[in-house]
Amino acid sequence: MEHQDQVLHYPDPRLRRKAEPVEEITPEIQARVRAMFPLMYEERGIGLAAPQLGWNVRLFVVNISGEPGDEFALINPELVEEGGGTWVLEEGCLSLPGIHGKVKRNKRIVMRGYDLDGNEIEIEADGMVARCMLHEFDHLDGILFIDRLSPVKKQSIKRKLRTLEEEFATASA
Ligand SMILES: [Zn+2]
């Protein structure tokens, strides 16, 4: 089975693929997406994109508070609007354990896509929710937050990236 219940770590090449749109929201897909939430909570994440599990489809889940009722999934998301100025905040990623860095993103966004029941939805978000959605949206195009760091910051995390690269080489050997 292509899907695996384990978050891939940098530099796994599967994190760099452009994900494919979901053609039909089948019960199998619904079950897989629902299984992403407990995995995300277990890993103490606030968002998780399918490509992080080696599942090459355009969808992600988010719950920035971790509270029941705040969770949502967005399938085949499109970024419809982006604005509200920019802000900078430190980000991390379950695929880059131990690495953090400041990323500049737009404050307000509108994304359109489908929920788990196949209904078309439009989500207007700002602040942390918008940031998290943009971060997850990036994963669908193989973009990681480290790609958006300043050159100075990129330099300063080189050693940590090297460690992850060595771990990956050992794990896949
Ligand atoms: Zn991430």
Explain how this protein is built.
30% of the residues are buried. A hairpin with a 5-residue loop joins strand 4 and strand 5 (120-126). The protein is built from four helices and five strands; from the N terminus they run αβββββααα. The mean pLDDT is 95. The chain has a single domain (13-172), classed as Peptide deformylase (Peptide Deformylase, Alpha-Beta Complex). Strands 1-2-3-4-5 form a five-stranded antiparallel sheet. By secondary structure, the protein is of the alpha+beta class. The chain has helices at 27-42, 127-139, 151-156, 158-172; strands spanning 47-49, 59-62, 72-91, 101-114, 120-126. Helices cover 29% and strands 28% of the residues. The structure holds zinc ion (ZN). Zinc ion binds next to helix 2.
Summarize the structure.
It contains four helices and five strands, in the order αβββββααα. With 173 residues, the protein is of the alpha+beta class. It has one domain: Peptide Deformylase, CATH 3.90.45.
